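Researcher: We're teaching a course module on how sequence relates to structure. For the next exercise, students receive a sequence and then see the predicted structure as tokens, so they can try to spot secondary structure elements on their own. Here is the exercise chain.
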Amino acid sequence: MSIKSLFKKYIIPHEINFLGMLQEQSLATYKIIDDLYDCFIKEKETACDFIKADEHKTKEIKNKNMHTLLGAFITPIDRESIYRAITQLDWITLSAKHFVLEVKAYEIHNLNEYKHMFHLIHKSADMLNKGFGSLSYAKNGEVSKIADKTRNIIEHLNQAYIEEMVKLSRESDFQKVFIHKEILAQLKEIGKRIHISANTLQDIVVKMD
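Model: And here is the predicted structure for the students to work with:
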């Protein structure tokens, strides 16, 4: 082995594709939101089952990404930004998992009355995934615009949340008010995590400039 080869092997740190890692986790996270939509809007019970399997997969990806980050000598972008992206994408997954567990505990299988909110969550998760997927080839300004669009969709979700809460306040059935208040809060929480992930995406773009 030549001196140059030895230098590369033992002295120069191995380059890790952190953007690819985040793209893999983002895609897996979007898949969970896609299953969430199919589960409660399209009433596909198989999609509900897929969420459990997908949640296990995203957890493996998150743990692998975190292990790689902690063991990396150098990173191409800010280490804290990568850490935030890994943890916030994981929070989206956890929020979706908690939502399924709670709604199923109430023995609810259809939430078509909140189809608009589910659509906004699905659309924002798709937009977020496109943003992470574009990091390695798109201009930073383009990715930043995707982050902005993601946040704008979540603003519409927050408005929809307020409108649904106003409707719920007129209900006289205490049990229904309690259950649906929890459901709406959980949907808003998923949106919040997508919003924070969009902030982190934009933070990465800033650090890449």
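Model: If you want an answer key for the exercise: Residues 69 and 79 are 8 Å apart (CA to CA). The helical segments are 3-10, 18-40, 45-71, 79-105, 115-134, 140-169, 174-208.
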